Each structure stands twice: as C-alpha cells, then as structure tokens.
C-alpha cells in the first residue's frame, strides 16, 4: 500500500480508506460541501422563474435543469460523506452560516433572460472550474464531477440557445437578453475567486492535486471561450476595456472590481439573507415530515422484529 | 357534416380537460421545488411535475391539431382565461403543508392511473398512445404519494394529525373526478373517452386501502359544489394562471 505522499506524487487517486492528512480531509470537506451547498442554493434563483416560464417547452427544460441541480447536490453530499461527515452536519453548517455557497447565487434573477444568462455564463464558468476537478486527487469527488460536468455542459448549451432566441427575437426580447448579460458578466468573472496573489487556499490545494490550475488561469480560459460566443449571440459584454491581444492570442478584460465580490462574500449581496432564509425555512418546515419518516421506519423495524 | 364537427370539438375539449388537470397540478407541484422537506423530495417532486407537464403538452398538441384553426400547446396553456380552463378544482387550490400535497397527489394519481389504464384502449390511436405512456408515469406518482401518506399517517402524532386534516380538506373535491355530465355521451359510447363514473369504484377502493394502512379515517362524503369541468373554478385558479401566463402575454407574438 502506498502512502498519501506517494499517491499524490504518482498522480494517483486517494480513496476514502487511505490515510490522509487531517488538513487534506478538512480542505476537501470544505470545498465539496461548498459545492454541494451551491447546487442546492442555486435552485432558488432559477426556481424563481419556474412558475412563469413563457412556454411549456422552456418550462420543461428549466424544471429538468433545476432537478439536475438537486441531483448534483445529492452526489456531492454523498462524496463528502465518504470523508466522515454527515449530510445533516453539513446542512447545519450551511444554515448556521459556518459554510458558504457560491456568491453568484446572491444576485437576483430579474427577468426571464437571466435564466439564459445563468445557463450560459454561470454554468459556463462552473464548467471551466469543474472540468479539472474530474482529475482531482480525491477519487469520490473526481468521479462525482465527471457526471456533474456532463450535465452542466448540457445546461450551458441550453442557456446559450435561450439567449440566442431572445437576442434574435423582438426588440424587447433582445433588450432583455442584453440587460441580463450586462448584469451577470462581472459576477461570473468573480466566480473564479480572487486574483492569484490574494487567494488564501490555492497553493496548498495545488500541491495536493485538488486544484490543478490557478484562479487567474481558469478565469482567462473562460474569457477566451466566452467572447466569441457573445459575438455569435449578437450581444455585447459590458467591458469597454475588453480587447484582443494579438501577441499573446488572448482576450484581455478590464479590471475586476473585487471589492464587490468581497462585500457579497461577507453577506452584503442583494440576496444573501433571502437565499439562506429560504433554505432554513424549507428545512424547518420539513422537520415534522422527516421525523414522521423516521418514526415510521422505527415502527416497521419493530414489527419486523416482532414477526421474527 | 355538422355532427362530425361537433364530435371533433368535444374530443378536443376532452383532451384539453385532461391536459388542464396535468398542467395545473404540475404548476402547484413546481411551487415546492427548493422547498421540499429533503433534497430527495425536491428531485421526486420535480420529476413528477415534469411528467405531468409532459402529459399536458402531448394532450394540448393533440387537442390543438383537432381545431380549426389549429392551436399550439402554448396557445392553449397561455392564452385562455380561467373560465375556459376545464381542470377539476382538486388540483388548482393553493398548496398547504406537505401532507396536503401528498394527499392531493395520491387522489389525482389514483384517478389518473385508472383513467389512463382504460384510455390506453381508446379507439382514438393518439389518445391511446398518450395514455399508454402516461399510465407508467402516474403509477410511479401514485406509489410515491402512497409511500408518503403511509409514513405521515402512521408516523408521529403530529404527522397523523396534519394528514387527517389534509384528508378532510381534500375529500370534498374528490367526487368531481367522477362526474361525467360535461362530457358528450357519444364520446364514451364510441370508445374514445373513458366514462368518469366508471373510475369511482376502483379509485375509491385503492384510496381506502391506503388510508386504512396509514391509520387514517375516511371522511364523510360531503362533496363540494363545484364545476371545474364547466369552467367554474375556485378563486385560486385565476391567481395561478396570472403567474403562469403573464410573461407570455406581455410579449404578444414573440417566440421563446
């Protein structure tokens, strides 16, 4: 059997029963939990338009997407459970504000076009972040990410197609699409986290093979992928400084106002209290149901024992 | 010729009524997404709502193809007012707690299970094909609701009380499912539609079995005065449709 250091050095997978440093375990729990929480909280901004989707086809697509997100939350909680924490503990930590979820979901969905912008930009950024996680050193997380990424890329194409339809629709629809992109572009860039020189967890995570690329590298990859797509959509990105760098063959974006990101992370975004409050309320409202299920299971087990 | 036209119209109305049940029930279930008691249930409720939405779309598409001029699924879902909706009142009323939703789903799915099982043998091949697909889906919905009603009924004193209360509230709205007064008799005679009255016995027999196992008491029959199939609804439907339809109606002529 190989030691943890040997597995990491050989770029092999660490599995639940392998020995691992406490800090590695804690880092993974933090990251996987945050990811799971993001999937669950992320259902809210999209759920906001489920009852109002403007066609039955779009309603069905959005409903299937939100359902996928609940499914992703379940795989990710299951991956975290292999590290010795229960889903209940993780949900308690979320509800008490001890664990975080992606700050992007603290922005409101103000029009139907936001559903397209979330699919195209937010899921697009998530994919760029997550594809390297399919090769993460921790086996259960890497395997969960393979399935998540497949579904996310489907969502991203659906978001693009939704925006394309709006952009090429009526004047009002085009304006709706542009407004959504104007609001979601900068928050999407901030999804990659602070710049490399200010990122607190990055170096150690890279060494452990949890993280494969730096925040800025991934952000650049996203920008290069997205700019031509915006052109194909017939929409502009709200960055007057965005320009093509001939020499480096890359798109250079303007300066990102990270003070906003830090404010939203601290809890001062437009929807922080609303999103967490909604989640806590759902959990509390469901307590009697979960208790009933547990009581029923106990009664059935007792009946089983009485028969045996 | 005239009588053929009328028969066609009533067949379209029949499909629309079944579609309206499915769409309105789906819309109420969707309100639960991201609010369910556990994440597995967010997935399950989303899945059931998606099945119902799919059934509604197939039925609307078929109904719309029978009318002159033809109408799309979205014409039917988004551009009819509440008085033109033909769903039963059972499905349109506001959500309450989780017990209300599961009791209501149990009743609806038990009804749809018996209905689609028979409609799969309709002489109309399109209705038969839609029903043959739907019957498998609603059998799962019925089982899901049954599993929850058993757990809630025979769970804790609180869950028992809530579920009995839900049952008392939903029971008056059950009998409308079996009222066939709105349906052209020729449709049933020709073997196109299923006589609603023929479903009463098997649906109630199934429900009684579940209630009994769940230690719940069947309420006294006290049917609500209701005529959803004729377009006379509760006040709740108008609000549900306001939310469902407003965006589509705000952009007339737009495609999405």
TrEMBL record, chain A:
One GO cellular component term: cytosol
Gene3D superfamilies xrefs: 1.20.1260.10
GO biological process entries: phenylacetate catabolic process
GO MF annotations, alphabetized: phenylacetyl-CoA 1,2-epoxidase activity
InterPro entries cross-referenced by the UniProt entry: Aromatic_CoA_ox/epox (IPR052703), Ferritin-like (IPR012347), Ferritin-like_SF (IPR009078), PaaA (IPR011881), PaaA_PaaC (IPR007814)
Domain of life of the native organism: Bacteria
Pfam families: PaaA_PaaC
Protein name: 1,2-phenylacetyl-CoA epoxidase subunit A
Lineage: Bacteria, Bacillati, Actinomycetota, Actinomycetes, Propionibacteriales
